[in-house]
Design a protein that fits this description.
Alpha-Beta Plaits; mainly alpha; 3 strands; membrane; 66% helix
């Protein structure tokens, strides 16, 4: 996979992840101390939340480093999918070390013995400091994500839906969940102080667990799709198909296969029905020229395979129809 400027040491993706890691590590320590002092289940759940986020950032740093390795004999298409593997482990980390512990603390507070709340002011101070620090990390993640969405002429929602880079998306999701979790913890501790019942504290811890489980599910679903071989961005697929049909030697685009092999890295296999009047040498030269033109126009295409095929081959037509429900002669928007 080609290393982008955002992935290089000191690049924006690395800066976003490192900043989030340092912030979450500091917050985790503060929350753990406050949770032990106050006896608040919600505060301990938030400490687990920050610990999970810290593990997540460490895994994302590993993803950025390992996925940038160049292709070799054992991995001829590069190591781009390593980013999705480590990001998937990050999602699992959020669930195991964050959500499960939060559920445990919550149910213990709801159904277990009563624990007196002590020094709630400490919890409020820690939550306020944590909110300020989380806002720093969240602002950086939002800034990067918006910039990348603008570069692709997309809304933020569209970018998060179609992006093949899980790094900034993961940081943005977990930081957003962290800010929401702080409000939930504040409410739980406040209601505990007002009512004298730890039920609200326990419910707050369970809600934090549900929040983390939801984030873990969203991230794992995204990375699962990329790991098993998701089609490239439909906008890119449509543009490539349109470009191929505009080539004089090409009479029809019979099949167009793409797979995301890493961030900004796409494998393309195009089955084309060429003009029958072309000789073997003309066909070879056309394929070489077409590949060069596609690489120049679409830098994301790191591997390109062009296969001359007849459009009326019944077996091939059956496979195309089974995959897309129609033939692609008239358009590549799949």
């Amino acid at each position: 996979m080609t290393e982008t400027k955002e992935d290089k040491p000191g690049g924006e993706s690395t800066l976003t992840v490192v900043l989030a890691l340092l912030v979450n590590l500091a917050i985790a320590v503060m929350k753990a101390v406050a949770g032990l002092i106050t006896g608040s289940a919600a505060m301990l759940a938030e400490a687990a939340h920050s610990v999970a986020d810290t593990f997540t950032e460490a895994l994302l740093l590993t993803a950025l480093r390992t996925s940038a390795r160049p292709a070799d004999r054992r991995h001829p298409f590069g190591y781009g999918k390593e980013r999705y593997f480590w990001s998937l482990l990050a999602a699992v980390s959020i669930f195991v070390s964050g959500a499960v512990f939060s559920f445990y603390e919550g149910f213990e507070a709801i159904f277990g013995p009563t624990v007196e709340q002590e020094s709630p002011i400490i919890a409020y101070i820690v939550l306020a400091i944590a909110f300020a620090l989380e806002m720093v990390s969240w602002t950086q993640a939002v800034r990067q994500t918006r910039r990348e969405a603008k570069e692709q002429n997309r809304t933020l929602f569209e970018y998060l839906r179609h992006s093949d880079d899980p790094t900034s998306k993961t940081v943005l999701f977990e930081d957003s969940a962290a800010l929401i979790g702080l409000f939930i913890a504040f409410a739980g501790i406040g209601l505990h102080q007002i009512t004298g019942s730890q039920l609200a504290d326990g419910i707050a811890s369970v809600l934090i667990g549900l929040l983390l489980a939801a984030v873990a599910y969203l991230l794992s679903r995204t990375n699962r799709g990329l790991l098993i071989g998701r089609q490239a961005d439909p906008v890119l697929v449509f543009a490539v198909g349109k470009r191929l049909r505009a080539i004089p030697e090409v009479e029809a685009v019979v099949d167009l296969l793409t797979m995301t092999t890493g961030t900004d890295s796409v494998l393309l296999c195009a089955r084309l029905d060429f003009d029958d009047s072309l000789g073997a040498a003309d066909l070879e030269r056309a394929c070489v020229r077409i590949e060069a033109e596609l690489r120049a126009e679409f830098p994301e295409l790191t591997e390109i395979f062009l296969e001359p095929v007849p459009r009326n081959d019944p077996e091939l037509r059956a496979r195309v129809l089974a995959r897309y429900g129609r033939e692609l002669h008239g358009g590549a928007g799949q």
